[in-house]
């Protein structure tokens, strides 16, 4: 099976779970001793998508360089400013109100640029499901405030791509350090070596590494 093409999802409430999750768990527990220990600790919980590309990218921007808890607090204040988080709604917001919600001036600029890209149809949203990971990353990083890390979060949390390894993610490196190297610092090269056993389910393994550091599920 070509894992990169598995995009079907099973709906649960307003979120959705990738249908490949069970298969990925089985593979990872068979191939990796750490995953064999970690995965059973978190029961049936899994990666979930909100199904809204703009909201996922906006949440990723809000969450840059702050903790999961802080990001949720700022997002809740930001979301309270408007009836819905859509590009037109964001473009109607006042900058002072966005700043008062806890967003930095730079993040306000990024959110506005993101809204302009969506509102002006500058992104090939309808083609994303058929595009490979690197092509989508290349398109997204043209938006101000979206670097490779944010694009990779989008691939994982919105498009549910199963084999993304976000080597710029501090949490991933810290988690690999703690779970595989007894807390010693690890390099990107070390992380790549560990992840060889995870393929073709690096996104799933990364999610469990994040959970090993923070019991609160990561969500964008």
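^ Assign residues to that structure.
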């Amino acid at each position: 099976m070509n894992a990169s093409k598995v995009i079907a999802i099973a709906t649960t409430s307003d979120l959705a779970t990738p249908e490949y999750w069970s298969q990925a768990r089985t593979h990872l527990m068979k191939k990796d001793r750490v995953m064999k220990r970690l995965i059973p600790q978190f029961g049936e919980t899994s990666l979930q998508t909100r199904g809204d590309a703009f909201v996922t990218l906006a949440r990723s921007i809000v969450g840059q360089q702050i903790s999961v808890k802080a990001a949720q607090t700022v997002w809740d204040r930001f979301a309270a400013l408007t009836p819905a988080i859509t590009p037109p709604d964001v473009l109607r917001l006042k900058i002072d109100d966005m700043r008062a919600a806890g967003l930095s001036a730079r993040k306000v600029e990024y959110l506005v640029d993101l809204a302009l890209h969506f509102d002006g149809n500058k992104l090939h949203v309808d083609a994303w499901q058929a595009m490979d990971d690197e092509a989508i990353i290349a398109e997204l990083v043209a938006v101000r405030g979206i670097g490779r890390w944010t694009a990779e979060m989008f691939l994982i949390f919105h498009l549910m791509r199963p084999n993304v390894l976000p080597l710029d993610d501090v949490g991933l490196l810290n988690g690999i350090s703690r779970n595989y190297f007894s807390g010693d610092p690890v390099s990107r090269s070390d992380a790549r070596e560990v992840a060889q056993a995870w393929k073709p389910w690096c996104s799933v393994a990364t999610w469990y590494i994040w959970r090993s550091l923070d019991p609160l599920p990561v969500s964008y």
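Residues 105-119 form the longest helix (15 residues).
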